[in-house]
């Protein structure tokens, strides 16, 4: 079984990364979405092992001590983290695992796991981003200003990503990202066994 | 105009890289094949600026002194090299330039131009390679042994390449390589201007 590719996706709030990744997972068996662990209480309708792995604070801290997370952070008094077990298990099973994660966490994971492919998703322009945030119709002006401020901070770090994917047309974006990820199966780092085999065969032929 | 991607393709003799690259160039306007300069005399039917740029030994050496080559080498008493002018001109014009080049030269170019994408093409196995070399029917046993010996040396360096492309089925290989190269347009290094623009727009919005 060939190992899968670990894909870390970040992007401006409003760039549509949630929609794009959900569609990838829905359309292709090839993908698995990483599931986060959290110490916050489940909300109505949230399911264990689908929406989150729910942990007590003590369980979460035990996992931290056991180095069981790829990355974790505390947010508004609750822990959130990416359990290694689930991600590594899916990769070993040949799935391409998509990790949707904010910029700081993404770059931390990349530093620890250089074989991960980092993708930053953006709208074609800042004005389109603003339009999409207003277009949702659910967000206050204050929240939109807050998201644009965060986008400014994130923009400083885009150049640390491997790839920039522009979400102009949703279908094109899904197709393009799928091709990009599938191409990564050709990376030398994904083919170490294959290269060793060829070498051995050439010596024996 | 967005700059093109520089693609360096190497591979075992018999892996089919000539056929694959010829098909890419024939099918898609997007590609330009790099044209080598040489100090050897034109053979019947060879055309200036299509098969080679023909130079005298003196002209070639003047170009070496002027640092006009991406890489060059001497082979059986003649110079062969890749002129910067042609490659850089095509990249600026937005073409993806394919440079078909042997392993040592490829890694030299990559060291000087880290944004180049290096691809190594191989058969699915060593036995398939041997079959294809025999299957040509034009090569002596000695020549085949020589090619396999060279393949053994090349195999030591495959892991230095960015991507390994397996040529099992020709059509699949062409399609896969095309997708791989087109995905490289999303690399951060290809989108420096775009990222600077978005950053500036976000500050002004």
What does this structure look like?
2 copies of one chain form a homodimer. The first copy, chain A, has a domain at 6-34 and 95-204: Rossmann fold. The radius of gyration of chain A is 19 Å and the shape is globular. In chain A, helix 5 (126-135) runs antiparallel to helix 6. The model of chain A has no long low-confidence stretch (mean pLDDT 93). Chain A has 205 residues and is α/β, with parallel strands linked by helices. Chain A is built from 8 helices and 9 strands. Chain A has a 5-stranded parallel sheet with strand order 2-7-1-8-9, with helices on both faces. Chain A has a 4-stranded mixed sheet with strand order 4-3-6-5. Helices cover 44% and strands 20% of the residues of chain A. In chain A, strand 5 (69-75) and strand 6 (78-83) form a beta hairpin. The interface between A and B is large, with 42 and 42 residues.
